Amino acid sequence: MTIDWAKERILIFAPHPDDETLGCGGLMSKAKAAGAEVFVQFITVGDTADFSAAGLSTAEERFREIKEVADFYRWDDWNIAFPGDEYHLKLDRLPRFELANAIERHSPLAIAELRPSVVITPHWTSYNQDHRATAEAVHTALRPSDNRMRHHPRLVLAYEEAADQWRYEATTSPNLLVELTEEHLDDKITAMRLYGTQIHGHPHTRSELTLRSLAALRGMQSGVAFAEGYHTLRWLA
Question: Which pTM value belongs to this model?
């Protein structure tokens, strides 16, 4: 079974800037080349303590990185729902009602406004509290209902990141594998390099070798050179 990406309007939810590239960087390259619309809804961004020489990545730096990555991928639009240190790495303190409502109705890229055909969310087994809060809120926003009253995307997927394998619940292999070419994978690596505050050398979960290795593993599992793995949450055929 194949997907004609040229016909799709894709909405990707990224808890933080870089999650969309780590999880969907190859698919975004493939889909945009085919003619798809791609939108990215970031949930939050703020100053982040890290292992750089400065010991901190500022929100301003990360905004600049987003703009470079957006231009590189030619996203149709992007938005940050809850910018600022009061939300960054604290989404688990935000009421689910407020977060789900932003995702469903109140953001400029809300599901009800954009009416995407494909929604892609983080995986709920991530150890990161912002990832888990985002995943659960997207599930709430996409709860079953009468599709004459609420928009139901035809395809709902959860993307994987190498770091997610740390949790003991993350034992189920992806059940949808998207074949990537070398060019798609190179685009993913290039975009990750544009997130200069976030990429690291090997053996980090956000290293180039890690991204290439995971793509090679998922490719091997599907009999091709490279692939990205996704968990299918809904597929209306």
Answer: 0.96
- For every residue of the chain, which 3-state class applies, written as one string? CCCCHHHCEEEEEECCCCHHHHHHHHHHHHHHHHCCEEEEEECCCCCEECCCCCCEECHHHHHHHHHHHHHHHCCCEEEECCCCCCCCCCHHHCCHHHHHHHHHHHCCCCHHHHCCCEEEEECCCCCCHHHHHHHHHHHHHCCCCCCCCCCCCCEEEEECCHHHHHCCCCCCCCCEEEEECHHHHHHHHHHHHHCCCCCCCCCCCCCHHHHHHHHHHHHHHHCCCEEEEEEEEEECC
Domains of the chain (ranges; CATH) run 8-178+230-235 (3.40.50.10320)
pLDDT digits (tens, 9 = 90+) for 67-107: 999 999 999 999 999 999 999 999 999 999 999 999 999 99
pLDDT digits (tens, 9 = 90+) for 99-131: 999 999 999 999 999 999 999 999 999 999 999
